[in-house]
User: Which sequence fits this backbone?
């Protein structure tokens, strides 16, 4: 049975957003609607939700029937948030990466836990993981696996993929995983060796890091003065983008060393406050293992005064 979807760090997100009556909030990564519904229950406010996955429509329709005009759903990529939404927001939340429903749906081809066609498309449209695995050159494949998966054996894996596909196309998640296992042997008690390569392909298929960068910029332009932006990330590539964005927009230049003094403020900062990374509690990790790598960062837009 697939694991029930549990919104990660839900209490921390709601607390950080400081949801209030009459406010407007954007759930930029709707998924199964966990954040959206919690926000709607927290106050007499409005939520506008975004998702590129057509499979979330049923859940969005359910919230529409429950909350009427207080809930609005917009189909699209959160990287296009500025074009999709024109209403200024008191708070915006992002939950970056693949959702539990996508991982647990074998047919979507996101996970090596199931034997399924190589797909990984969040929008169910466009170039798939099958296309990348079977068409990209060896060096380009190696670069994707190294840069997006931080896989040290990316070159060997790419070479093995190219060798295998010369015999026949690599069509399924299991076929790809088995190729990876020839390079990195599975060991009991350790993370599955296919994890990093599958992550890399998923990020490439969905342009996840590009979407994140565009989404953060667009969200900043929609935030009202003293509005809050919350971002939950699940790996270092995402978190680094968010941390650097918050540092830059708060007028700080990221330090190259933690031993150096805090970087000086520039003028006209967009954010008046940026939190440190907030981690899930031990209790949450125990009840929801998928939260173990999560980090929450939030920032408050300035009140219009020059910082």
Assistant:
């Amino acid at each position: 049975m697939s694991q029930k979807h549990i919104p990660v760090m839900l209490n921390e997100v709601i607390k950080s957003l400081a949801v209030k009556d009459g406010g407007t909030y954007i759930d930029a990564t709707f998924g199964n609607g966990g954040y959206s519904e919690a926000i709607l229950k927290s106050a007499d406010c409005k939520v506008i939700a975004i998702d590129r996955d057509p499979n979330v429509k049923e859940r969005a329709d359910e919230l529409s029937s429950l909350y009427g005009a207080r809930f609005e759903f917009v189909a699209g990529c959160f990287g296009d948030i500025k074009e999709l939404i024109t209403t200024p927001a008191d708070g915006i939340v992002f939950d970056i990466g693949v959702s539990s429903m996508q991982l647990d749906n074998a047919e979507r081809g996101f996970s090596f836990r199931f034997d399924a066609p190589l797909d990984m498309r969040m929008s169910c449209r466009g170039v798939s993981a099958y296309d990348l695995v079977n068409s990209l050159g060896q060096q380009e494949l190696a670069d994707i696996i190294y840069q997006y998966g931080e896989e040290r054996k990316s070159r060997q894996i790419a070479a093995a993929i190219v060798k295998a596909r010369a015999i026949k196309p690599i069509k399924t998640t299991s076929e790809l995983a088995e190729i990876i296992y020839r390079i990195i042997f599975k060991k009991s008690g350790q993370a599955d060796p296919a994890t990093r390569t599958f992550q890399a392909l998923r990020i490439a298929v969905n342009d996840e890091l590009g979407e994140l960068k565009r989404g953060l910029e667009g969200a900043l332009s929609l935030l009202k003065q003293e509005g809050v932006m919350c971002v939950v990330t699940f790996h270092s590539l995402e978190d680094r983008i968010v941390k650097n964005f918050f540092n830059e927009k708060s007028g700080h230049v990221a330090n190259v060393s933690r031993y150096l003094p805090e970087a000086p403020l520039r003028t006209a900062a967009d954010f008046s406050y940026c939190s440190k990374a907030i981690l899930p509690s031990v209790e949450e990790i125990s009840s929801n293992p998928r939260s173990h790598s999560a980090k929450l960062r939030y920032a408050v837009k300035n009140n219009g005064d020059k910082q």
The beta strands are 24-27, 46-51, 71-75, 89-95, 223-233, 271-274, 295-301. The longest strand covers residues 223-233. The CA atoms of residues 285 and 291 lie 6 Å apart.
